Prior knowledge:
By secondary structure, this protein is α+β, with helices and mostly antiparallel strands. The chain has twelve helices and 13 strands.
Amino acid sequence: MLRIAGTRLGLAEWTCQTKNMKRRVPALAILAVALCGSYALLDTYDLTPGILTNAPKSHIAGNVRADRALADTSSTGAYPSDVTAPKASEVQQAIGQFVKDEATIGGAVSALVLDGITGQPIAAEAADVPRTPASVTKMATATAALDILGANTTLPTRAALCGDTLYLIGGGDTMLAAGKGDPHAVNGHAGLADLAQKVAAALKQSRDQSAAASGKPAESSGTAQASVKAPTKVVVDSSLFAAPLYASQVVKDDFASSAMQARPLAVDQSRQGGGEYDYHADPDLEALSLFAKDLADQGVKVSAAGRAQTPEGAVQLGRVESATIRQIVAEMMTVSNNVSAETLGHLIAIAQKKPATFEGAGQATTDYLQSIGCMRPGVELHDSSGLSTTNKLTASAIGCLLQRAATCSTKEGCNSDAFTQGLAIGGYTGTLANRYSGSLVGNVRGKTGTLPQSAGLSGFVTTARGYPLMFVAMADGFRRGSGWAAHRGIDTFVTSLGTLK
């Protein structure tokens, strides 16, 4: 179940040999890979990580007709006999208008429309031309995370003791709560205060057992702490991920201030004061400082002493678990959470025995696309969030992911339900909350993508008669400053699909 942390950190409770052993000097934690944080200035539609939620679809107002597009492609009987697929000529006409719209701002277009029941292509334009996908990249990351990491896997944050040093060990949870965790939340599911409470309880139990063995009360026994020495300092182990701290593309484009450092633990994804693009400079050290305060509240007074790698033999005193990968993926897709995407990508890389770096994550995901038959010529990924302009996907590759998710969503034991449920809903949720109106409200589910010269939307829509379609719309190379126009062209295209008779 907890394969992720086990790859590097191990999950056994070891015994720390403090006498007659050759001690390893704790090394400074390896600097971690860049988690592309939320993209403040340019990612207009994907900009808000927001407050994380995992509300079931039943809590969303309106009739989400696009749900019908998620039916098993073999379930043709689920639709009335008089509901027929739109004419290919009409779909091609809508694509043609999309091409013209994007051409006015200098953009090149790829488009693909698939039959939501048969999965077969209806019409396409340049479907095999690689384009910059922006945050549509997260569709590949989400699918790989669910299958490789496991939908029900959780991410541990642990505390272990060796000598007089307590180690706070990051396992990939960047949504820790500073205080107590909330079991019903995604962000803040696990709390540092809960971990501190477990540490204090473990120390007390050790003292009590030692006192019982000596026959003296714990308060007066001179040997009460012989088995486990009370810590005097606490350090953070951020060594799960590898350097660099930021992706080269982020540094090159001077967006480092809009991205969280790549660390395998953080409180509220390192947002300062709830701000979405104001990140703490060192998220792991911030978490360490807060953990030290939580320990003090439990009567364990330690000084925060920076970063160090956990030595072999450290005794685990407590652990807390994140929300499930299923929940994290659903939230990541809805609000286009770049920090979550990069974290998942690095964990995918570790699980696939690749370097825990941006490049390692990209390679692990492309290898996964190959394994499920969704790899296409020209596809390459260099991060997991889509911030990198060097990423390339084709409409046909994205269409393959949509087909797989639609087919998979009704099968027992299938993990891609989080993929489809996490897609933003037009007029209601996430990055589509302020897009689409009238009959299209609640009738579009999709993943958005925005970069200075790239825009995209891929997902599900139903026609005016209720026939399900899958669509991919991509535009790139348009003039800088034309992002709004590019999205208007995409919205016009999807609206035309939703109003087909």
